[in-house]
Amino acid sequence: MTTAPAPVVSRNPADPSDILVQVAAPGAFAAVDGVERARAAQPGWLLSGASARAAALGAVAAAIDAAADELAALAVREVGKPVTEARAEVARTAAIWRYYAQAPFESTGAVHEAADGVGLLLTRRRPHGVAALITPWNFPYAIPSWKAAPALATGNTVVLKPAPEATACAQRLAEIVHRAVPAGVFTVLPGGPTEGNALLSAADVVSFTGSTAVGQAVVRTATARGVPVQAEMGGLNAAIVLPDADIPRAAAHIAAAIAGYAGQKCTATSRVIAVGAAHDPLREALAEALRALPVGDPADPATVCGPVIDEQARDRVIRAREDLSVIATAAAPDGTDGWYASPALVEKVPPGCRLLREEVFGPLAALLPADDLAHAVRITNSVPYGLVTSVHTGSLDAAMRGLDQLDTGMIRVNAPSSGVDFHLPFGGAKASSHGPREQGRAALAFYTSGRTYTLAPAGT
Asked: What burial class does residue 224 get, using C-beta atoms within 10 Å of its C-beta: 0-12 exposed, 13-18 middle, 19+ buried?
């Protein structure tokens, strides 16, 4: 007997009784059918030309700008994103589509001299075909967009499978994109593992963002089929603070990176490494910054930390801090049924503790002492992940000495670990990432494959 896929359900994490989406999962056949419709539409989309593709992406950007307030409110309601962050994400999403609207006019190759001086040698990049995009709930507009926009710009068609918790946001984004592109060019496929696995079995290129366990399975499946794949997975990010840092400023940055959006970012800070004499003043300043951090209703513009995404996430954060020495917490709101977890900073964490080995994905961080910069680098590199590290110092020399020793894909000096420059490559090292980088010009290379042409005169 075949078990029916679990239904797609999306709830408001600040008010779990508020259900945004509850529909039957479409199943594996719908996933394969979506890919086939996308494959049928792809040649026409490519042949529409650079001007048409650029205009379509520009139209999506303009429509997102026009619907900004509505889109932000939907993200607040569906994924519990604090409204200030939700508005910023919508603005960034429009900027992403606008940035890639110029990409169809980018050079796709080069002309080379033939070794014998006869004819021409050309290199050219061409789209793979159908791009399968599997995305998480925490950036319901930006992550699908920074995958879809370069894929579409380079002539691919797209089938997007969002996390069930962000289905309403994905469907609203699809409504906007559908007005700008032909039928079959951009498809949203709701669902869970059944639909995701079927999509992986049929697509021509795969981009994934999500948990490490699922990402590793995605990589295995795509690699076995011989299709290009990139996977952005977990992070266990450190903030290194040197004694010469601006301690109050560093504490403010780190507190926001620990608890902003309830720590539900792969770039959130989960380890704070205080070097030498920085430890005691940083401990005090960071505790004060966390206690003062506004926790509450994500619709309130003052809120920095709202609810976590669901009950399981809340329980995971609570379990992770059990039996640990808590320095400071920011109290969760009373009298609410929402899934809130108090932000917390802990210390004296045992070496084998889960908090120092696994991503909790919540507003929780450990304060760790280091003897010197070299010791701090060793602590930073001691985990299986390597996404981003922030380094706080007043000395460029000190920063430069440590930067090249860090096994992380992104390093931010005197800035929070959280934050993304969408026009630059994004990705990590070790278990954080697999395959080529995404975002920026790197994405244009990922969604295309190279061809080499030899053009010789007839009769030679």
From this structure: exposed
Is 266 annotated in the active site?
yes
Average pLDDT over residues 372-377: 95
Catalytic residue among 266, 305, 359, 438: 266
For the residues 328-357, what does the mean pLDDT come to?
88
Residue with tokens 């954060």: 317
Q: Tell me which residue of 191, 160, 156, 164 sits closest to 174, measured CA to CA.
A: 160
Give the strands of the sheet with 433-434, arranged side by side: 186-188, 157-162, 130-135, 205-209, 229-232, 433-434
85, 232, 347, 438: which one is catalytic?
Answer: 232
305 is catalytic: no
Cα end-to-end distance, the chain, whole Å: 65
CATH tag for 237-413 (out of 3.40.309.10, 3.40.630.30, 3.40.50.2300, 3.40.50.300): 3.40.309.10
| Largest interatomic CA distance in the chain | 85
Whether the predicted pLDDT of 208 surpasses 70? yes
